[in-house]
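To: structure desk
From: M.T.
Subject: fold request, one chain
Message: Could you run this one when you get a chance? Sequence is below, nothing fancy, just the single chain.
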Amino acid sequence: RQMCIRDRHSATVIDVKVFGDHAFAYGKWRVEQIMQDGSESIEEGYWSTHNVKVDNTWKMTLDHTNDLDI
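Reply: Done. Structure tokens follow.
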């Protein structure tokens, strides 16, 4: 198995909905990697979170990701 020698991660928010002390957010993620042999690997997919406000601070209660190949 090859080692990754360089990678770049990104996440983009598509939308956020707030309902009182609960919030739902979703977006896209992408990881670009350069492997030891110089080949490039790109993976991307979607993410979503559920958040709850506790003592005026948002806390993530659920984090879900999947890839676009599903």
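Reply (cont.): The first strand starts at residue 4 and ends at 19. Let me know if you need anything else for the meeting.
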